[in-house]
Write a structure and sequence with these properties.
The protein is mainly alpha-helical and 137 residues long. It contains 4 helices and no strands. Helix 1 runs antiparallel to helix 2 and helix 1 runs antiparallel to helix 4. The radius of gyration is 16 Å and the shape is elongated.
Length: 137
């Protein structure tokens, strides 16, 4: 399943929107690559990207948390921890089992779920809060 970007995903915060677009493109690349080559190398490259993405993107969001009194702070941070834990879990499984198509399917399913649940709920709520602070509401 390939993901498509649409305006309903926009947060109105350029850096966050750009990072989300990068994630969408990487998820789609992963799906395409794994259809052609389900090797452990391709899987581990996807894991490496997700770890880098999490570090960069979560730091961006957390910089907003630090400057604002965000009411959903702990809930949002817990979601970030779950993402990191899941990626680490899949990496460990890959090291144990090697090239396993079920890990690629599990990663893809998780990322699609993350895309729709986290971005559309948590990140949109964060953006609304940030934008309300900018407007002085």
């Amino acid at each position: 399943m390939l993901l498509k970007w649409d305006d309903s995903l926009m947060t109105g915060i350029e850096i966050i929107d750009n990072q989300h677009k990068e994630l969408l493109n990487k998820i789609n690349d992963l799906v395409n690559q794994l259809e052609k080559d389900n090797s452990n190398d391709v899987f581990l490259e996807a894991i490496k990207f997700m770890k880098m993405y999490a570090l960069e993107h979560f730091e961006t969001e957390q910089s907003y948390f630090e400057t604002l009194d965000y009411p959903m702070l702990q809930e949002h941070l817990d979601e970030h921890k779950k993402f990191i834990a899941k990626i680490q879990e899949l990496e460990e499984k890959s090291q144990t089992f090697g090239n396993a198509i079920h890990l690629s399917i599990e990663l893809n399913a998780y990322l699609i779920h993350w895309w729709y649940s986290h971005i559309k709920y948590y990140d949109k709520a964060l953006a609304m809060f940030i934008n309300s602070k900018k407007k002085g509401i």
